[in-house]
Amino acid sequence: MTTTVPIEVLIAAGYTPVDLNNVFVVSDNYLKYIDMAEKDGFPKSMCTWIKGLYGACLENGIKEVIGVMEGDCSNTKALIEVLQLKGIKVHPFSFPHSHTLEDVEREIKKLMDHFNVEESEVETVRKRLNEVRALGKEIDELTYIDCKANGFENHLHQVSLSDFNGDIDVFEADLKKAINEIKTRESINKKLRLGYIGVPPMTADIYDFVENFNAHFVYNEVQREFAFPRGIEAKNIYEQYYDYTYPYNTEFRILELKKQVEERKLDGIIHYTQAFCYRAVEDIIIKNKLDIPILNIEGDKLNTLDARTKLRLEAFLDMLLDLKEAN
């Protein structure tokens, strides 16, 4: 998968979904994937994630890919065409720009027909997956309510729900073990409550770096969406993916952001964007619509923070502390 899709359909059809993003970003040889793409002609001025997905797909012998043609990266269509050129079978899927329940239902039904599965089979799988997603929601609550889980744990466990690490039962056991361990801890006592919004970072060390200061990440926006915390209440798979904010317009996304800013009592937000990604422009809208201090940082090839970004983060945190103490 090039991004989160209705994996309930794939599992019902007998597939084991693999999120190429997770394969790419956790690899010790992640730069090798990027180099493979650039050697094959991908320009340097293209998003690193697209190049990483390409390399991860070829290097790991992936034979079939679901490419999201609408509602994700604007470069995915070109990526899919190159993968087809390499002999990889591509299954297209779209999150409709119209964002009506009827159109979302039509797209998911097309996917069901494509893989020859019935709605009842898909709903059985959805029920099972939502049992595991409930554990992701519990870890999220242990982060922002009990303040026992740190920002990286919150990120890792929720982002992994995009494909359940390839084994639902094993992943469920791992989550239960993590929850039991986290519950035994003392609460994290930091003055600043931060939100992380935007795509999951290339630079995962941002969590440790920021939390070395008097700050605690209590919200990971897109990672939480991958975990479908509201999907448990959805009547069916169509409602679940209609209510999924990531692939639709910024205004719909902001409605949920406003709720979380208030519920989690955030002091500030760090908005991560990827170099050469169209989503960076959304920062203009987000800063205009949210009444909270926001710092936009940009990642590229490195999987660690550079000195300039660290300096900007430190200055932002100092400012937030000054504001909080003044109030």
TrEMBL record:
Q: Which GO terms describe its molecular function?
A: hydro-lyase activity; iron-sulfur cluster binding
Q: Which UniProt keywords apply?
A: Iron, Iron-sulfur, Metal-binding
Domain of life the protein comes from: Bacteria
The prosthetic group or cofactor this protein requires is: [4Fe-4S] cluster
Provide an example Pfam family for this protein. Answer: HGD-D
List the signal peptide residues. none
In terms of InterPro entries, this protein maps to: FldB/FldC_alpha/beta
Gene3D superfamilies per the UniProt record, alphabetical: 3.40.50.11890, 3.40.50.11900
Protein family = Belongs to the FldB/FldC dehydratase alpha/beta subunit family.
**What name does the UniProt record give this protein?**
Benzoyl-CoA reductase/2-hydroxyglutaryl-CoA dehydratase subunit, BcrC/BadD/HgdB
Q: Which organism is it from?
A: Clostridium fungisolvens
The lineage, from the top, is: Bacteria, Bacillati, Bacillota, Clostridia, Eubacteriales
